[in-house]
Design goal:
This is Transcriptional regulator. One of its GO terms (molecular function) is lactate racemase activity. The protein is of the alpha/beta class. It is built from 15 helices and 20 strands. The protein is 35% helix and 25% strand. The longest helix has 14 residues. The protein is globular, with a radius of gyration of 22 Å. The mean pLDDT is 95.
Length: 418
């Protein structure tokens, strides 16, 4: 059986025996027959468990509206998404001058003028007040969350008459899914709160595709409710970034509607784990560096047996990637050293190194990449020149009758055992 996985802008080919093949795991195909604009209008006209935007604005006698929007690292098609919602807000009596767009940067860099034009378009940039969130300035203390974390939030957001959040719902490696409540925490939260929230990823329930008993998700929802989100507009997109699902209304109910859609499309059920999982990232830019390629491991580890092997196909043309992550990997003596540092000297960026150390507790990782051998060793991975070479090594370790799953685009799916 011959297969090819995307590798940068090329492919890596390999063969496996039919006797070893347990299955190929991939997202369910979805062909959207509804126009994107119609999806948005339908969602705005049919909010879930919520009054319409106009009713909310009128009931509150609101004079201003704050809309929380994603930053450039989240490919949200705002040129399509925002205009129909802004029109409804203005039709309810709110002038353009009293509408603010707050960019939920979390701890990412602020947007430049060029970023704003790329994300929102010139018309929105010209007519509306667009403000970068700053995790260190212009914040408001709203008391404490139930776990003792201090709820410190962007002041524009905290003091809005009407608060709306927007975004994409997709798989997230420790919040379960993105979207909804995540616009508030970490999106517009203070730096210390963001750090404390990210540290909660050490809980084993904080994992890809899980939201039912996920403590990270729970505290995010609590924070968003305490801040007082009035209305959300969330979407699910296809790989080409076209909108295939749109939902609006109540903070939780509208979000969970989008989650269920995403779950149906991107969560794959299996009845047994495999000895070996061969995982790809989907090629460039998803495998541009190890910081990004790590997302494939989060999916693969859910499909492999304890003590099994993951074969990762990831070019990593730009090496390890993000600076803090790279420093943690390069300076670590062992995976235990990374875990200790995570709990004693947490830094954002280092959380990805921690995620890799947790994966290595369950499985060993072979990698086909452009990484230097010394870097691969620092990652505690086993370097191979080809998928066939890595597979030969893994079969020697686990036996010639070992069962294998293939996941060509691992970041696109989560695995659920049934």
């Amino acid at each position: 059986m011959k297969y090819s996985f995307a590798y940068g802008e090329t492919y890596k080919s390999f063969e496996i025996n039919k006797i070893n093949f347990l299955g190929e795991l991939k997202a369910n195909d979805f062909k959207n027959v509804i126009d994107e604009n119609d999806l948005i209008e339908s969602a705005l006209n049919n909010p879930i468990n919520s009054d319409s935007l106009q009713q909310i604005i009128n009931k509150k006698k609101a004079e201003n509206v704050v809309i929380v929007v994603n930053d450039i690292t989240r490919p949200t098609p705002y040129k399509k998404l925002l205009p129909p919602m802004l029109k409804k807000i203005e039709n309810a009596g709110i002038s353009k001058n009293n509408i603010k767009l707050i960019i939920a940067t979390g701890i990412h860099r602020p947007h430049t003028k060029e970023d704003n034009i790329n994300v929102f378009g010139e018309e929105i940039c010209t007519n509306y007040n667009i403000i970068n969130h700053n995790p260190d300035k212009y914040l408001k203390d709203l008391g404490y969350l139930s776990n003792g974390m201090k709820l410190v939030i962007n002041r524009h957001v905290a003091e809005a008459d009407i608060l709306i959040t927007t975004g994409i719902v997709t798989l997230h490696y420790f919040a379960g899914f993105s979207g909804g409540r995540k616009s508030i925490l970490p999106g517009v939260a203070g730096r210390d709160l963001i750090k404390e929230n990210h540290k909660m990823m050490s809980d084993k329930r904080a994992c890809l595709g899980n939201y039912n008993d996920n403590p990270v998700n729970d505290i995010m929802i609590e924070a968003a409710r305490k801040v007082g989100v009035d209305y959300i507009l969330n979407i699910v997109t296809a790989q080409n970034n076209n909108i295939i699902h749109c939902t609006s209304g109540d903070l939780y109910e509208a979000w969970i509607n989008a989650v269920k859609f995403c779950e149906h499309r991107n969560v794959v059920e299996i009845s047994e784990p495999a000895d070996i999982v061969i995982a790809g990232c989907g090629g460039y830019p998803k495998d541009i560096n190890m910081y990004q390629a790590q997302k494939a491991l989060d999916s693969a580890v859910l499909a492999v047996k304890n003590g099994g092997s993951i074969i990762l196909v990831a070019e990593c043309r730009e090496g390890l990637g993000e600076t803090t992550f790279a420093n943690w990997i390069e300076n670590a003596i062992s995976t235990e050293d990374i875990k200790k540092r995570f709990f004693t000297n947490f830094e954002l960026g280092g959380h990805k190194a921690f995620a890799i150390s947790r994966i290595l507790e369950k499985a060993n990782v072979y990698i086909i990449s452009n990484l230097e051998d010394n870097v691969t060793k620092k990652l505690n991975f086993i370097s191979a020149n080809s998928v066939n070479e890595a597979l030969s090594l893994a079969l020697q370790k686990h036996g010639i009758n070992s069962k294998i799953y293939l996941i060509p685009e691992a970041p696109q799916i989560a695995v659920k055992h049934v």
